Amino acid sequence: xxxxxxxxxxxxxxxxxxxxxxxxxxxxxxxxxxxxxxxxxxxxxxxxxxxxxxxxxxxxxxxxxxxxxxxxxxxxxxxxxxxxxxxxxxxxxxxxxxxxxxxxxxxxxxxxxxxxxxxxxxxxxxxxxxxxxxxxxxxxxxxxxxxxxxxxxxxxxxxxxxxxxxxxxxxxxxxxxxxxxxxxxxxxxxxxxxxxxxxxxxxxxxxxxxxxxxxxxxxxxxxxxxxxxxxxxxxxxxxxxxxxxxxxxxxxxxxxxxxxxxxxxxxxxxxxxxxxxxxxxxxxxxxxxxxxxxxxxxxxxxxxxxxxxxxxxxxxxxxxxxxxxxxxxxxxxxxxxxxxxxxxxxxxxxxxxxxxxxxxxxxxxxxxxxxxxxxxxxxxxxxxxxxxxxxxxxxx
Length: 396
What we know:
Layout: H1 2-30, H2 42-56, H3 60-73, H4 79-92, H5 102-122, H6 125-145, H7 149-166, H8 176-193, H9 198-201, H10 209-222, H11 227-238, H12 246-259, H13 264-276, H14 280-296, H15 303-319, H16 323-339, H17 346-361, H18 365-378, H19 384-395
């Protein structure tokens, strides 16, 4: 009887949903086209939930299947194309050196902008402005990672222009607050961190870092499409700088990793936050999971994640005076760094340095000297590891 009743309730809910959908569609068809919007359509949000979650959990084929369904049903709207572009973007995120997805990602951003301009001019300025701002912002982010700073600056300025048009319309959709939050935080952050860019930033309104953080928190609570992106930025912002709050960053990191356990970037970042917070047992557990996923060939888990996880494990075992295990993981980190072409990065230098420190502790002076010389050769003279290696060589 319970099963039958449950089935009846489900069937009733489906019928009600179909009736509501029909009413919503009819309302839209009867409405002024200026009010026509997919961004605030609750049925599309419900239908897209599983696909959006699949994308962030690195189930890209599953996500793309639904985004293609949206594309077929709403070919005139930028939403499906932005989502399809993000499906490629998140394949880039774990390792920004991977350029194999750049072309399709940029193609979808171009299509998003083309359709968003049409929406902006003919149907709904607010919604069109949001998608134009988002497409230019993601495009600029990629150009920045590729060190194409002129293109990044052009895309960034165009994004800011449209985000400005979205200001004050948060009641239309909480998604619109996302751009305002990023501008408030990074508009001020750039002035503080990059003094040479201050003359350029004078062209834009002054930001407010604390307000930006509060706005990001509001987006994580109320938005649908921007929620996870807001959590992503919030986690990064709270993990460093003047607004550093490691416990809160770790809380957001845990939330993201729990919700999307197969996302290698969230997995790696949460592990790093545990390590930085001194939660070494938990950090070691998560780092071992990363290495297991790399061995199993899970999507997105590759050498770049491996060098992080290996260093954390090496240092944790070193602090426990388990030097054989520490050596093993530091060496593994060096191997992953070479595979990822990341031998000019900090974890490579620190792995060499700590291998030398271990040999120094155990009285293996010649081997320790060799590692310290490798640090001097690999790192720039201004890097802290270079100075440390020089000092230890003099003492030896």
